[in-house]
Amino acid sequence: NTRPAANAIIQPGFKFEDMGIGGLDKEFSSIFRRAFASRVLPPGIIQKLGIQHVKGILLYGPPGTGKTLIARQIGSMLNARPPKVINGPEVLNKYVGQSEENIRKLFADAEKEQKEKGDESGLHIIIFDELDAVCKQRGSGAGGGTGVGDSVVNQLLSKLDGVDQLNNLLLIGMTNRKDMIDEALLRSGRLEVHMEISLPDESGRAQIFKIHTSRMRKDNAIEADVNAEEIARLTKNFSGAEMNGLVRAASSWAMSRHFKVGSMATVNPDVKDVKVRREDFMMALEEVKPLFGVAEEELE
Ligand code: ATP
């Protein structure tokens, strides 16, 4: 049940779910087509078609919806180096005074390889999480009035616009607050592809649930009365991360049947046969609640 947005020829038997990402087939295909596909073409063809690689993309949406998953998975599909991951607040807090230097270092490997190998250089991916923390409108004093936010944005801009075109670089910015991102960063030639990653719908949640219980299924550690479609119906507004949290909470209920708690906690000898049941998920649903989307509904 793949839903390729591009006309790419999907290899027989391939399913997006096998990559551990549920409910984001359309977004995945679209990001791949717009930001990554050109990276697979040989340099000769790139020149012939006059293609300019996309240098930056922005993934935005609520927390825990799979933004980081997508970025990492597409990187590994393209055989890129493991991405460099950096976090907005970390840049501001930890490296006050040397944040610019820190950003410069982030790009250094890509710059070096580009100089040495030109078009033959491999792809370097930088994942910039919580980009909003450094990219509040310049001049607004992000970074606690130190002006650090401004200089980080300026440094990013100068790296993206650099005189020496960094053709081997892709910057993936992530945020829960697109409205907070400095517009200068979102222009063409910078973080120009914007993709919203929203909370999964019911069928997305069923897919995510199946992904996070696939190991249990394989190991025969889940009862047949657990139904992904039923759980998906009961988890409105859950993010992917919250679906994962639900599965872990249910496992803890299953384990709890095997504990004997006295002055010492011990475990029943039959603990090998621990199986998660529907009732465990019902208990877990009492505990794990979605963070987002609920308030709006209560207002309706
Ligand atoms: P944040 O904005 O908080 O950085 P994010 O959108 O980058 O969040 P991830 O880090 O990708 O979220 O997701 C956290 C975890 O939640 C993942 O490691 C995975 O276990 C689970 N998860 C989230 N979305 C999905 C999904 N669509 N399919 C499968 N698992 C998911």
TrEMBL record:
UniProt family annotation: Belongs to the AAA ATPase family.
UniProt lineage: Eukaryota, Fungi, Dikarya, Ascomycota, Pezizomycotina
Protein name (record): Vesicular-fusion protein SEC18
Domain annotation AAA+ ATPase: ranges: 53-201
Cellular localisation: Cytoplasm
Functional summary from the UniProt entry: Required for vesicle-mediated transport. Catalyzes the fusion of transport vesicles within the Golgi cisternae. Is also required for transport from the endoplasmic reticulum to the Golgi stack. Seems to function as a fusion protein required for the delivery of cargo proteins to all compartments of the Golgi stack independent of vesicle origin.
